[in-house]
Amino acid sequence: MKDSVIKVTEFRKTYGDVVAVDGISFDVHRGEIFGLLGPNGAGKTSTLESLEGLRFPDGGSLQVLGIDPARQSRKLRNLIGVQLQTSGLPESIQVDEAMRFFCAYHGVAPRYDLLDRLGLAEKRRAQYHQLSTGLQRRLALALAVAHDPPVLFLDEPTAGLDVPSRVELHNLMRELQAAGTTIILATHDMAEAEEMSDRVAILLCGRIATRGTPMDITATGAGLTKVSVRTEGSSLSEAGGTFPAVSRSTVKDEYHIYFSTDIGPTVSAIIAHIDAREDTLIDLRVERPSLEDRFLEIATAGGAQ
Amino acid sequence: MSAFLYHFLFEFRTGLRNKTLLMMNYLFPLGFYAMMGLVMVPINPLFLETMIPGMAVFAILAATLLGLPDPLVTAREAGIFRSYKINGVPAISLLVIPALTTVLHVLLVTALITATAPLFFDAPLPVDWLGFALTVLVTAFACAGLGVLIGVISPSSRMTVLWSQLIYLPSMLLGGMMLPYSMLPATVRKMAQLLPATQAMNAFRGLAQGLAADFSPHGSLAILLTSGVLAFGLAVYLFNWDRSNTTQRGHPLLALLVLLPYAVGVLLLS
Question: Chain A residue closest to B81 (CA)?
Answer without folding.
Answer: A88
